[in-house]
Amino acid sequence: MSPERLDATFAALADPTRRAILARLASGEASVAQLAEPFAMSQPAISKHLKVLERAGLISHGRDAQRRPRRLEPKPLAEATKWLESYRQFWEASFQRLDALLDGLQTTKKKGRYPKH
Amino acid sequence: MKETGTLKIAAHGDLELVMTRVLNAPRGLVFDAFTKPELVKRWLFGPDGWSMPVCEIDLRVGGSYRYVWRHDRNGTEMGMGGVYREIVIPERLVSTEKFDEAWYPGEAVGTVVFVEQAGKTTVTQTVRYNSRETRDGVLKSPMESGVAASYDRLEALLASPEQRGKAS
């Protein structure tokens, strides 16, 4: 995944409305009007969010000139997820080891072998 | 958030990832574990099977650090490093970070804040990625199965509790 793409993906995903739009599109394509429905937002406001998602490559729109239905583009999302999963795994495993290390150090410290800050 | 042992990751603002973890130790000790190479080497290497053969830390503003991880079986190496921008012992560390094979442009900036309460330390790590507003072209890819599942996983990873209610 290109760096710019990952950046754009995370920027797009940082907003709860945009995540809700993606969740809606995960169950099938929808028009702007349909996407605007669940939100207390105007269609232009929703359109702005859609533009961000589109520029990030997370959604695309169909040819139908009237409805221009939006649909999910799965690839960037899958790649961002994969990256985040490995990030989480790295830190989870490391922190578990740190728990044990800190326990050990505190035991040692009580015996006066580890200098206080 | 008071629970030890649970790692939380949330998206914050435009391009920040915030990670929170509570550790059962006073913060002076936790700060040492993040900044003394002989201690860092003993925990900061992710899943089993990896080790950290290089861990160099010059803990002063403008000083640099360098980490290299190695997969013990297949020999794969991964390195990263950066420069310290702010050091407040034992409260706060700000440094740049860049992986040798970076998947994001420029450097990211990492901030680690250590807060102690009742003998436990909450570590909050914020990574701010260098924003570059987006590029052209829409990735064309055939629909894959499992999109919803992948989305759910991502949402679980990213959403902070207050956002989770609104976004569903």
Properties at a glance:
heterodimer; A: 117 residues; Arc Repressor Mutant, subunit A; two-stranded antiparallel sheet; 65% helix; elongated; B: 168 residues; alpha+beta; Alpha-D-Glucose-1,6-Bisphosphate, Chain A, domain 4; 4 helices; 8 strands
How would you summarize what this structure contains?
Chain A has 117 residues and is mainly α. Chain A is 65% helix and 5% strand. Chain A is elongated.
Estimate percent helicity of chain A: 55-70%
Overall tally of structural domains of chain B: 1
Order of helices and strands of chain B: EEHHEEEEEEHH
Question: In which order are the strands of the major sheet of chain B placed?
Answer: 1-2-8-7-6-5-4-3
Give the class of chain A from helix and strand content and strand pairing. Answer: mainly alpha
The pair of chains with the biggest contact is:
A-B, 59 and 64 residues
User: What's the CATH H-level superfamily name of the domain at 3-75 in chain A?
Assistant: Winged helix-like DNA-binding domain superfamily/Winged helix DNA-binding domain
Q: Which CATH first-tier class of chain B would you pick?
A: Alpha Beta
Number of helical elements of chain B:
4
CATH class descriptor of the domain at 3-75 in chain A: Mainly Alpha
Regions of chain A with pLDDT < 50 over 5+ consecutive residues? none
* CA-based gyration radius of chain B: 18 Å
CATH superfamily of chain B: START domain
**Cα Rg of chain A:** 22 Å
Mean pLDDT of chain B: 76
Q: Shape of chain A from CA axes?
A: elongated
Count all strands of chain A and give the number.
2
Q: Low-confidence parts of chain B lasting 5 or more residues at pLDDT below 50? A: 131-150, 159-168
For the termini of chain A, the CA-CA separation is 43 Å
